[in-house]
Amino acid sequence: MATAQPYKAVVIGGSAGGLEALFALLAELPADFPLGVVVVLHMHPQSDARELAATFRRRCRLVVTEALEKTPLLAGRVYLAPANYHLLVENDGRFALSVDPKVNYSRPSIDVLFESAADVWQASLIGVLLSGASRDGAAGLARIGALGGFTIVQDPETASSPIMPQSALALGPVDRVLAPTGIGRCLVDLAMALP
Amino acid sequence: MDETALEAIEIALLKTAIVERYGYDFSNYSPASFKRRVVAFARREGFKHIADLIPLLLHDKSFFRSLLFSISVTVTEMFRDPQVFRIVREKIIPVLKTYPSIRVWHVGCATGEEVYSTAILFAEEGLNDRLQIYATDINEESLEKAREGIYPVEQIKKYTANYQKAGGRRSFSDYYHARYDSVILHQELRKNIVFSSHNLVSDGSFGSMHLIFCRNVLIYFDETLQRRVLGLLHDSLVPNGFLCLGTRESLQYLEVKDCFRVIAEREKCFQLK
Fold first, then answer.
1. Whole-angstrom distance, CA of residue A73 vs CA of residue A13
2. Cα(A91)–Cα(B184) distance, rounded to whole angstroms?
3. Min CA distance, A44 vs chain B (Å)?
4. Which phi and psi angles does A133 have, rounded to 5°?
5. Could you confirm whether A15 is annotated as catalytic?
6. A1 confidence band (pLDDT: 50, 70, 90)
7. Nearest C-alpha of chain B: how many angstroms from A119?
C-alpha cells in the first residue's frame, strides 16, 4: 500500500559547496517534475540571483528564475531567493520578501524560508539541506520534520562544508542522508509517488 | 486543530486588539512577514504563545510600543544599494536642478540612514539651498533615532564603501565625527530635513513631491495596501516627478504602472508620465 503523501513543494538550502551540490541534484530532475522548488543559497549581498539563475540554464531541464515578490510558486520551476532579502511564502503559495535583520548571520536565511514554507505546506513539504559552513537551516529543517514534512540532508561525507548538514543531524533524525545525485533521485520518487 | 491554524487565530486576535486599542490597522500587512516578526518578538520576550502578548499590550502602552517597533523596523544603511543613489545622481538630479525648489519624500524612513544619504547627495550637487526633505515613518521611536543621526561605528566601513560606489565626490568622513562607539552625522545635514510620523494605511497625501523614495516598504504590504499606497504616491508627485522603489519591488502587477515610465530598470527608478 502506498503511504507517500502528495507533496506540493520542495525547499532547498545551501551555502559554501551548496551550488555544486545543487547542480548535481537538479540534473536528476526531469522536465516534467511536478513540484515547485524554492532555493536559498547564501550569497554576497550585492550579487544578483538573476545572473546565478542564468548559470543553471544549460545544466538543468527545469526553468530556473529569481523568486519575485507576490508571484506564485509554479510546478516544475526552480526559484532562487534574491540576494540581501529574506524569502518567505504566503498561504496562497506566493512569495514574500523581507528586509529584516540577518538570521544566523545570513540574509536570505534558510531558516526563514524553511519555517515559512513549513507553516504553509506542513506534511506536503520536502526540505533539503546541503553543504554549508553555518548552522542556518538546521532549525528550519527540524521544523519541517515536526510538521510532518519529508526531510533530506546531504551526506556530510560528500559535502565540501559538512557543518550545515551535520548541524541538522545533531538536532534529530531526518528521513534521508544522501549524496546530491541521490537526493535528486529521491525527489523524483517522492514527487511521482501516488497519494 | 493544528498549531498553524491556532496561530492564525491568535494573529487575528492580536491585530484586532491593536486596532481597537491603539488604532494601528495591520490587517493588510503581508501575513508571512508579519507573523514572523510577531513570533520573533514573542520569543525574545519569553512568551510561548502569540496570544500571551495580548493582555500585556492592551494594558501596557510601553510594551505595545516595543512590539510596534519590532513589527515596523526595517534594516537600512547609508547609501543602501549604492547603484540606486548613483542613478539618482546621474539621471534624476540633472532634471531636478531645473526646478527653483525641490521637495523629496522618504516614505518609511526608519532610522534615517537613507535620508541622510540623500541630503549628502544633494549637497554635493550644490542643491542644498533649494531642497526640502520630508522623512516619514509609522514608528515614533525610529523617527527619534533618525533625528539624532547617530549610528554604530562598526558600520562605517560599509557606509564608506557604499558612499564611494554611489559616486561620492568627497571623503565620507567629511560628514561625521566619531565618538566612542558611535558616529555622529554633522548637524548641517539635518537642516533640510523634517522628520514626522505618517501612516500609509490611514493618512492622506503629503504634498506635491519631485522625488519620492519608498524602498522596501511595499514588500510588507498585501496587494490591496500596495495599491492604496501607490495611488497615494502617484497623487503626491508633480508631473514628471520621480519614484524609487526597493530593488526587488515592482510596479509590474499593478494598474498604476501605466502611469510611469522606467528610468532605470534594475534600480527600480520611475518617472510619472
1. 17
2. 43
3. 13
4. -105, 20
5. yes
6. very low
7. 6
